Amino acid sequence: MAKKKKKRSFLSKLFSRFLVCIIFILGCLIILKSSPSLKKDVYQYVFNSNISFGKFQQIYEKYIGKFPFKESVQTVSSNFNYLKNEEYKDGAKLSVGKDYVTVSRKSGIVIFAGEKEGYGKTVIVQEADDLEVWYGGLKEIKVSMYDYLKSGEVIGSCDDDLYMAFMKDGKVLNYKKYI
User: Fold this and answer.
1) Which pLDDT value is given to residue 73?
2) What angle do CA 158, 163, 168 make, to 5 degrees?
3) In terms of pTM, does the model score above 0.70?
4) CA 66, CA 125: separation in Å to the nearest integer?
5) Are residues 150 and 88 in the same domain?
6) What is the pLDDT of residue 15?
7) How many domains does the chain have?
8) 90 belongs to a structural domain
9) Is the pLDDT of residue 99 over 90?
10) How many Cβ atoms are within 10 Å of 139's Cβ, its own excluded?
11) What is the pLDDT of residue 13?
12) Residues 6+ apart with CB under 8 A from 61
């Protein structure tokens, strides 16, 4: 009996969140349809600027709640342990050991997961403050595009070297401030 009640409660919460999202989308569409100048401004903003998925995730969790189908992810200490660092292209090359577990520095959304020329397998995480953190030189990637990561969640693993770069608004930042 309690199991049915839990399931019904979960489904009613999911349904109410779904309805709130539908009402929000319909409201936005009605407002955009009624004001051509606002529609032009919104289109210009959406197509000409970088949207912060991390901020969207924070707002969603604050007002609506957690995403209902998020998988549990392994979390480890988020301290970066490395033997030495040196400049490499746009960031730093950290010397790490074999099978080094790479974790997210802060919470954010994965905006790229794949192969980058010169960096090998790479994951780019956009943090809530619009800072993009590149994790390159990975041998294995354990996340997918648009996964939401919390601080310390496993991104993948690498051998010997981990490449890290920090960018904001398309500009490369000094890695020494962030490592």
Assistant:
1) 47
2) 135
3) no
4) 19
5) yes
6) 85
7) 2
8) yes
9) no
10) 15
11) 80
12) none
Average pLDDT (53-78) is 61
In terms of residue numbers, what domain contains 9? Answer: 2-49
Within a domain: residue 63?
no
Closest C-alpha to 179, from 89, 37, 81, 102:
81
- What is the number of H-type helices and E-type strands within the chain? 3, 9
One domain for residues 171 and 109: yes
Is 166 among the domain residues?
Answer: yes
Q: What is the per-residue pLDDT across 106-141, written as a single tens digit (0 to 9) for each? A: 888 899 999 988 888 999 999 878 889 889 889 999
Q: Which residues contact 129 (CB under 8 A, 6 or more apart)?
A: 54
Residue 92 and residue 30 share a domain: no
Residues 42 and 93 in one domain: no
Buried b (16+ CB within 10 A) or exposed e, 70-107: eeebeeeeeebebeebeebebbbbbebeeebbbbbbbb
Q: Are residues 38 and 88 in the same domain?
A: no
What residue type is 162 in one-letter code? L
Question: How many angstroms separate the CA atoms of 135 and 150, rounded?
Answer: 15
CA dist 79 → 76, 131, 133, 158 (Å): 9, 18, 15, 16
pLDDT at 39 over 70: yes
